[in-house]
Amino acid sequence: MEKKIILPSILTLLPAVAAAQARYNIVYIMTDDHTAQMMSCYDNRFVETPNLDRIAADGVRFVNSYVANSLSGPSRACMLTGKHSHKNGFTHNENGIFDGTQQTMPKLLQQAGYQTAIIGKWHLESLPTGFDYWNVLPGQGDYYNPDFITMQNDTVREHGYITNVITDKAINWMEHSRDKSKPFALFIHHKPCHRCWLPEMKYLTAYEDKTFPVPETFYDQHEGRLAAQQQEMQIADNRHMDIVYDTKMYRPGIRTRLSDLYLKMIGRLDSADLQRYNDVYEPMARDFYRRNLTGKQLAEFKYQRYMRDYAKVLKSLDDNVGRTLDYLKQAGLLDNTLVVYTSDQGFYMGEHGWFDKRFMYEESLSTPLVMRLPKGLKARGDIQEMVQNIDYAPTFLQIAGVAVPADIQGTSLLPLLQGKHPKNWRKSVYYHYYEYPAEHSVKRHYGVRTSDGWKLIHFYRDINAWELYNLNDDPNELHNLYGQPGTEQKTAELKKELIRLQQQYDDQAALKFNEM
């Protein structure tokens, strides 16, 4: 079994730093559905994200960063608890309620004298626990004039664009509301880049002159991948990517599955802003319906609309990360604060013809992770070791000098942030997705991804299908090798590793499906 790395407290590890300054603060910025392809320090083909890139430039970029369950609520539960979904109890978004009475990393930080706060997207149904201050969005939240749930359990509508409002609240808490005699852990959870990508007023026309390159796998037919053939995430399919809700092509009299929801969302705008919005999108819609696109032309039109609107909301996000960094610098907090930026999972930007996430394929399994390090933590540049979002909780605890409970399943990243490369670091990660039947129709599956570029996936219960990939030869995961002559030994090795991880993480329910 993988040996958990348990380190002494930071007071022992960094005596000079501990003597010179108070315990490190933690600012954790998490976005929704922001994928590494759309962050220029990872991939500069599509957009520039200068403020996000500042974090990596002043610290570290994790190049093998993965999630345990590529879905919003479950990912957040993994972060809070340091445990896989089957252990924290929040396996899927559909009718799930996070058990706030359980042990969480913010509660342990509180007990150690930290002030804790969360502002923005929560998406765990129950009210937050373990936070001295919280102000969160109901459900997914709204881009325009968003509602917030207060600690008095009131719902208050705020005026403005959601990313700006969340940043205003976060900076206000740091400047005016926290007890400045205590270290703090602030969780800033943004809505972007979640569907349906409604831009800030000042960026309504941004990227409209840009044509994004179509991914080489955009017309993938998913041969040999039965579960991939049965999903409902196709950009080209209007039943999946709604022509009104997702691409804003609304005209009076046009009704789609999600058009009423779209009208409700933009209806939150003040009359002047709604007019500005319509002045941009109504001419596009008139032109679209005049052209009567079909087939490949329609698919690529929808792809360009998707990419442009996604890039617009990302641009506001990058601005606000810059505002947060600027505040920390002006307040004299940067030298003593760990700044973390990540997303709840990756996302498909047209790869395989898709949007959304869920599958264990690389675009969804991977997630951006960059950290600006405070004084005393020496690592810089790229970190190659495999890390997972269950690692955030033990990392923050050890950064704070708090003992990591034995039942936490993640491994602290502190040695990596110190520039070390432990020989016994994990060589594989375990993944388990549960939400079926549900939106996008992705079958339940689990699997193992190894550091030497192999992946084994098992789709189970409603389907029985295995998939095997050699990412070194097939980075786009187009060729399922499972059952092919010559792969017997590698398949056996990966099944053995899969079982080892399921036993290590005590995923007893999954173990019984391996012999299907």
Output the radius of gyration: 23 Å
Query: Number of helix segments?
Result: 16
| Spatial strand sequence of the major β-sheet | 5-4-8-1-9-10-2-11
Structural category is alpha/beta
Q: Which residue ranges are poorly predicted, with pLDDT under 50 across at least 5 consecutive positions?
A: 1-21
What kind of assembly state do the chains in view correspond to?
A: single chain
Percent strand? 5-15%
Described by strand count, sense and barrel closure, the largest sheet is: 8 strands, mixed
Mean pLDDT: 95
Tell me the span between the first and last alpha carbons: 24 Å
Q: How many individual β-strands?
A: 16
Overall geometry comes to: globular
Helix content range:
25-40%
Could you characterize the architecture of this molecule?
An 8-stranded mixed sheet has the order 5-4-8-1-9-10-2-11, sandwiched between helices. The chain has a 4-stranded antiparallel sheet with strand order 13-14-15-16, with helices on one face. It is globular, with a radius of gyration of 23 Å. A hairpin with a 5-residue loop joins strand 6 and strand 7 (155-157). It contains 16 helices and 16 strands. The protein has 516 residues and is an alpha/beta fold.
Brief summary:
The chain has helices at 10-13, 15-20, 50-57, 72-81, 85-88, 105-111, 162-177, 226-229, 259-266, 271-291, 295-330, 362-365, 392-399, 414-417, 488-504, 508-511; strands at 25-31, 59-62, 65-66, 115-121, 133-137, 147-149, 155-157, 184-189, 337-343, 369-372, 381-383, 387-388, 428-433, 445-450, 454-459, 465-470. By secondary structure, the chain is α/β, with parallel strands linked by helices.
